[in-house]
Amino acid sequence: MAAKSDSLAPHFADLEQQHEAATLGMWIFLATELMFFGGLFTAYTVYRHRYPEEFAAASTRLNLVFGGVNTVVLLTSSLTMALAVYAARVGRRDWLISCLGLTGLLGAAFLVIKGFEYHGDYADNLVPGLAFVESEWPKPAGVKLFLLLYYLMTGVHALHLIIGIVLMSVLAALARRGRYSSEYYAPVEVGGLYWHFVDVIWIFLLPLLYMVGVR
Amino acid sequence: MPQPVETPRMYVAIFAGLIALTAATVALCHFDLGAFHGAAGLGIAGAKAALIVLFFMHVRSGSRLIWVIALSGLFWLGILLSLTLTDVLTRSWSM
Amino acid sequence: MSTVVAEPTLPEQAARPVHYLNAHYGVRSWLLTTDHKRIAILYLVSITLMFFLGGAAISVVRLQLMTPRNDLVAADTYNKLFTMHGIIMVFFFLIPAVPAVLGNFCMPMMLGAKDLAFPRINLLSWYLYILGAAVTLTAILIGGVDTGWTFYTPYSTARSNTNVIPAALGILIAGFSSILTGLNFIVTTHRMRAPGQTWFRLPLFVWSMYATSIIMLLGTPVLAITLTLLAVERSLGIGIFDPALGGDPLLFQHLFWFYSHPAVYIMILPGMGVVSEIVPCFSRKNIYGYRFIAFSSVAIAVLGFLVWGHHMFIAGQSVYAAMVFSLLSFLVAIPSGIKVFNWTATLYKGSISYETPMLYAFGFIGLFTMGGLTGIMLATLAVDAHVHDTYFVIAHFHFIMVGGMVMAYLGGIHFWWPKITGRLYPEWWGRLSALLIFAGFILTFLPQFVVGYLGMPRRYYQYAPEFQVLNVMSTAGASILGAGYLLPLCYLLWSLAYGKDAGPNPWQATGLEWQTPSPPPTENFEVTPEVVQEPYQYSAEVTHGG
């Protein structure tokens, strides 16, 4: 089967080399992303060690229902993403487009649920600087630090998710135009790697943010 | 093209495992495990992450270079955390 | 004294060949290029500009330090000047210099490839660099930053009323440029080597670029999140780094130095790679200990991540952590020492000639070694307690960065200038500048070791009168150094119009890049080369090592 000649960039020898370069590049990029989040994990670790009771108390005030539901949503989106890559590999364009679209939609659903959750946090006086009652807490400093880290970590995660949703839309649009085939689907695979990474980050945020104390 | 060996059926099975582990995590945080409370949650998270990385991200059937990169990222994060903790955990004053 | 320059041909005699410089004309063909060689030129122009801006800032500082109670500038202005010098030199000159200019230009050719793996990302790298530089320079123009390039908290987050956030933002953006360059280099090295180009046939410059890329990729993201946290803290004041609000200022330093220490290896490793190319060529001898040099590059990259706490020995870090970091800092010197031994062994019984690149290489080896040894002094807890935050530290890192890195960069520019431009620079001006730079450097920075050891603190706009003589010497040296740097700017530009035609290989050097015409065609090789022999096959006799 002849490869689409316009899919192969001129500095590569063949599509296989291009595919391998693309996946290698994305894996390396994901390692850098892990270090980016790693700085936040480090700050979290230092302050959790310093303020164990405050972290536990603040953590149990977060809404585990939202957190749990969102985890299921994101895990489902990873399933649809994996199926999308499979569909691309076997040349099923219709499944590819549906799965990409579903992945993006589930990501958007995550963001909507997160929005409701943030609203609930605001209503519950869990937003230092905007809605926070110092007298509610024996030692507010540690609580504020936990909450700041909560918003930062979920916020940076959400930012990455938004980029992922845009990516899914672009991939789906290009797939509709017949850009991908079983020979050339590296962008889909690479987009998948990114999406799964964003999911893995959330998997760790769940226990770190919602499960510090006993509920 | 490098051919991962995973099939849709396998993906669905992994997904079921992920959901089960999530349910376990949520259930677990209602019990006081003392010192192991944090470790248990992270341990389950680690298992879920491993499933996604190995199967959804095709590392299980991937090249050795991909394994090295994935593990390197983890290892470097480990350096950042562990050496910072050598300071934070051994200070004799309350900072 | 032997010479390796082949007979140059007069430009009019050759037919007008098509190469990467004249293949396309117009501003758009440069600003939208994906040719790694053109992108290297774009970087060359940008970082040269930044270098002289950073140099201008420190010139005012050195003038201020001519007398102990000078009031050439106010204290606040002084703080802004050394901050500007540090930020510009670290983030906008030293980090990109060799990788983005020489690495971009030479790497694909050394590998036998037509371009890097991701040419458009390469162009994006340059635009991110320019954007970052623009944002940071704006911060400087609208009033400057006075925190020092290290942005220590809580001063930077809660006290300083200067433009911290824009400056930090500019550095953040430039950091992404660095990450993308590193990504490109690693993927290209793994996936785009020519047939026969096995790992141990690669030039050592490629090994050093690969090791540098590891650091760029794994360290810079931590800087990115740290600067983000800095900006968040400065805007919201929740207390991540403010002890008054329950935060830990040392956490900032941990996160900051986790990147910024390996960053100094980002700066020096490429310079070492350049020296590894120059020394065999101008000793006409195979490099001694190829595998040792190759592996020591990777060792420096890895070990370099384990030592950052030596910047915080007296900052409040636990003494047990300090001991760990001190020991690790001793260890990281070993691979660098191995390189110096191998270069020296390469020189031994070599047929040495003293062209400009070689003069810079000699300067590097000597000055880097001196700087490195003072690093071991600083890694010693008991010594550091006394000389931390004095000019001793400043002299240490300038010996490595200026005596080492800048010299290696200039050596590399001169070495590859014929390949990049197709012209020869005037050799005697090159040698004169190298010697002037060396002399100026010694006069500038050697007194700083002494004055630092005697107790003069860094970052102070006035000082105790007994330090004046040494400061005057340092300022005098700085003016010689400045003149020395201006000379290459002039004669290299002159050579673009009037330099002799270089020919493909004026140095008779080995390496795939010298098998192409000078300047090379856009696609580097008309036919993909096949590598059949080990690198650095300079002499016919059997040589040791490798």
Descriptive account of the structure:
The complex is a heterotrimer of chains A (215), B (95) and C (546). With 215 residues, chain A is mainly α. Chain A is built from 6 helices and 2 strands. Chain A has a two-stranded antiparallel sheet with strand order 1-2. By secondary structure, chain B is an all-alpha fold. Chain B has 2 domains: 1-62; 63-95. Chain B has helices at residues 8-28, 37-56, 64-88. In chain C, α4 (97-111) runs parallel beside α14, α5 (119-141) packs antiparallel against α7 (164-191) and α12 runs antiparallel to α14 (391-421). Chain C is globular, with a radius of gyration of 23 Å. Chains in contact: A-B, A-C, B-C. Chains A and B meet through α1, α3 and α6 of A and α1, α2 and α3 of B.
Average of per-residue pLDDT values of chain A: 94
Distance between the termini of chain A: 59 Å
- Poorly predicted segments of chain A: none
- Proportion of β residues of chain A? under 5%
- Helix run count of chain A: 6
Q: Which two chains share the most extensive interface?
A: A-B, 51 and 50 residues
* Whole-angstrom Rg of chain A: 21 Å
**The number of domains of chain A:** 1
Range of helix content of chain A: over 70%
Q: How many E-type strands of chain B?
A: 0
Q: Strand percentage of chain B, roughly?
A: under 5%
Question: Would you identify the CATH H-level superfamily of chain A?
Answer: Cytochrome c oxidase, subunit III, four-helix bundle
Radius of gyration of chain B (CA) equals 18 Å
Write the layout of secondary structure elements.
The complex is a heterotrimer of chains A (215), B (95) and C (546).
Chain A lengths: L14 H36 L1 H9 L3 H27 L2 H31 L2 E2 L3 E2 L7 H37 L9 H25 L5
Antiparallel strand pairs in A: 1-2
Chain B lengths: L7 H21 L8 H20 L7 H25 L7
Chain C lengths: L26 H5 L4 H29 L10 H20 L2 H15 L7 H23 L13 H5 L4 H28 L12 H33 L12 H35 L6 H14 L15 H29 L8 H24 L1 H7 L3 H31 L5 H27 L14 H31 L48
Helix pairs in contact in C: 2-3, 2-4, 2-5, 2-16, 4-7, 4-8, 4-9, 4-14, 5-7, 7-8, 8-9, 8-10, 9-10, 9-11, 9-12, 9-14, 10-11, 11-12, 12-14, 12-15, 14-15, 15-16
